[in-house]
Design a protein that fits this description.
Layout (H helix, E strand, L loop, with lengths): L7 H6 E2 L9 E6 L10 H7 L3 E6 L16 H11 L8 E6 L1 H16 L6 E5 L17 H11 L4 H5 L1 H19 L13 E6 L7 H5 L10 E6 L10 H14 L14
Parallel strand pairs: 2-3, 2-4, 4-5, 5-6, 6-7
Antiparallel strand pairs: 1-3
Length: 267
């Protein structure tokens, strides 16, 4: 299916790969550093038509390649928050992986501030709690150093990394995203009022289980869940059926409608 083109900020920032106009719930997906909206195409295909899936497209990549990257998390969150203004007509959940988890968290804080009852749920994947800080300087490395880091995590198609032309096109966005993540600093505030579900790979070198569990401080009492999967930072690529089941269980049970996801899709 084609991308749903909509005008203004929404059309720039949000992509709908599968129409689901009658869905009872909406899920907004936030990619990892260097990632694009297309990463969540399997999620959109699997959850439609029960869930309306929107995927965030950050500037500086793919069809937004000519735009300058935004290299700080709060600014990214501000833009996505504004783009979501026309998508608040039904229960809205957020799902972010790695860098996307931080952007989703900050968008959740903005939604909660201005729109009571939104979001309905926050899913964060492959990222330590925002209160947990590590000194990281990948964004200061030379190009080869950044590529080595990306290879070590295994989430980027090797064909992109091996093709110099494609790699050179992708590097500015990757560097800008790493700068956004590594310079992010948590600003204290009250917990969210929605449930928080954390998903993490058991062998993720970027997140310990203790760091993942600290997301509980951002959730209402009794509304936190931690799901641990086999695999590393990009456990999603091999555990998509299990990830989709977690999302579907929460999103379709909220309205009592919908069917289990089509588990044949792959990242």
């Amino acid at each position: 299916m084609g991308i749903d083109d909509v005008p203004g900020d929404e059309g720039l920032w949000l992509r709908r790969f599968e129409p689901a106009g009658n869905a009872g719930n909406r899920l907004v997906c936030f990619p990892h550093a260097g990632g694009s909206a297309a990463f969540f195409l399997p999620v959109a295909r699997a959850l439609a038509p029960a869930v309306d899936v929107l995927a965030v497209q950050y500037p500086g990549r793919q069809d937004r390649r000519a735009e300058p990257c935004i290299d700080d998390i709060p600014s990214l969150a501000d833009h996505v928050y504004r783009a979501l203004d026309g998508s608040l007509d039904r229960p809205l959940a957020l799902f972010g992986h790695s860098m996307g988890a931080l952007v989703a968290f900050e968008v959740a804080r903005r939604l909660q501030r201005d729109h009571p009852g939104r979001p309905a749920h926050l899913f964060v994947s492959g990222r330590r709690a925002p209160t947990r800080y590590r000194e990281e300087t990948v964004h200061l490395r030379d190009d080869d150093g950044i590529i080595a880091e990306v290879r070590s995590l295994g989430g980027t198609d090797a064909r992109v990394l091996d093709d110099r032309e494609l790699r050179d096109m992708a590097l500015p966005a990757i560097r800008g995203d790493y700068r956004a993540v590594e310079t992010y600093r948590y600003v204290a505030g009250g917990p969210l009022r929605c449930p928080v579900t954390v998903l993490v790979g058991a062998r993720d070198p970027r997140v310990t289980l203790e760091e993942a569990t600290d997301w509980e401080k951002q959730a209402p009492e009794g509304s936190f869940d931690l799901k641990v999967f086999t695999g590393g930072h990009f456990y999603l690529t091999s555990q998509i059926a299990e990830v989709l089941a977690v999302l579907s269980d929460h999103l379709t049970s909220a309205t009592g409608t919908g069917s289990p996801p089509a588990l044949g899709h792959r990242w």
